[in-house]
Specification:
By secondary structure, this protein is an alpha/beta fold. It is 38% helix and 22% strand. The protein is elongated. The protein binds S-adenosylmethionine. Its EC number is 2.1.1.297. It is an enzyme of class 2 (transferase).
């Protein structure tokens, strides 16, 4: 593949807010030039992944995929398109996450609609989905009842509904706005008829018992929250992340409550932060309602999941 020549880009003017692509009617740039200019600008603002951001934004703006960008580096982008794209660039310059700008995030190889009403699903959470599928084992083929607490975008609930075609899923969230997004994602993936969305505090709105209770609850302590990147703090919902001074508030509530809502042989699975393993271990030992406690790391080598099975005498 030939590398396109770098030519001075007459179409760009620097303005106080950042790059502004000017539509003069004469100006145009190639795909490659526009990516390089945007990447340089993002780099100068210390954004962590400038090239990737530039490519993902441009591909989405042009309603193409990134492969198309690589195979059409010399294609012109019109002044009108550059003008529209400049508004997306300006949002990224202010630190807004790419997923909110393009309105999408891939999770479990599925495309989820996301906006500031919900936390952007993280790839780390996929190991939680993997562990749920493991504990369901051959039960996947039957009709497992699964509860997802704090469903947010619906990433976990929709991924599980997609993976387990006979599962019935209940998904809760305290945020009505988040539930509007998750319900939309269930529709989008054709699993809405198998997921019941309920608004309320943790297990409060839920009836009945479940084979699996899964949750990626808020688990950031107040100190760590202050140290999160501005990109997260300024744009993602605080109530999706913060969990009191020690980051343990939700685990302390979920572990005992879930014990009363698991069927015999049922499992509780929770996403955790890397430094929370010992605290979680202590909480489960204190509860005495569970057995077969196990922890799992994510693919970056950080502790990410805890799972435990209900004791027979607890669930009877
Ligand atoms: C870390 S986010 C997880 C979102 C999604 N499950 C995921 O993995 O991407 C936590 C979610 O819990 C919800 N939440 C916070 N407090 C809650 C509560 N008391 N009861 C139910 N949901 C709650 C938040 O609104 C948010 O959607």
């Amino acid at each position: 593949m030939t590398v396109p020549r770098r030519v001075p880009c007459k179409g760009i003017q620097r303005q106080p807010g950042g790059i502004r692509y000017v539509s003069t009617g004469l100006d145009k740039m190639t795909i490659e030039q526009l990516i390089e200019n945007t990447e340089k600008d993002f780099m100068s603002r210390n954004l962590a992944t400038p090239r990737l951001d530039a490519e993902v934004l441009l591909a989405s703006f042009l309603k193409k995929d990134r492969t198309w960008l690589y195979t059409h580096p010399g294609q012109d982008v019109s002044a009108r398109e550059m003008d529209g794209f400049s508004f997306w660039v300006a949002r990224r310059q202010k630190g807004e996450p790419v997923a909110y700008i393009i309105g999408r995030k891939e999770f479990w190889s599925l495309d989820f609609a996301v906006d500031p009403r919900v936390l952007i699903p993280r790839p780390d959470t996929e190991v939680l989905v993997e562990e749920v599928i493991k504990v369901l084992g051959s039960g996947r083929a039957s009709r497992p009842e699964i509860l997802d607490l704090g469903t947010g975008s619906g990433a976990i609930a929709v991924a599980l509904a997609h993976e387990c075609p006979h599962a019935r899923i209940t998904a809760t969230d305290i945020s009505r706005k988040a539930l509007a997004v998750s319900a939309g994602n269930a529709e989008r993936h054709g699993v809405a008829s198998r997921i019941t969305f309920l608004e309320g505090n943790l297990l409060d709105p839920v009836m009945g018992k479940f084979d699996v209770i899964v949750s990626n609850p808020p688990y950031i302590d107040s100190g760590d929250y202050a140290r999160l990147s501005a990109e997260v703090r300024n744009f993602e919902p605080r109530e999706a992340l913060l969990a009191g001074e020690q980051g343990m508030d939700f685990y302390s509530a979920i572990i005992p409550q879930a014990a009363c809502r698991l069927k015999p042989g049922g499992w509780l699975l929770l996403e955790i932060g890397d430094s929370q393993k010992e605290n979680l271990n202590r909480l489960f030992q204190q509860s005495d309602a569970y057995q077969d406690l196990a922890f799992r790391k994510d693919y970056a080598g950080r502790w990410r999941v805890v799972k435990a099975k209900i004791r027979e005498e607890e669930s009877g």
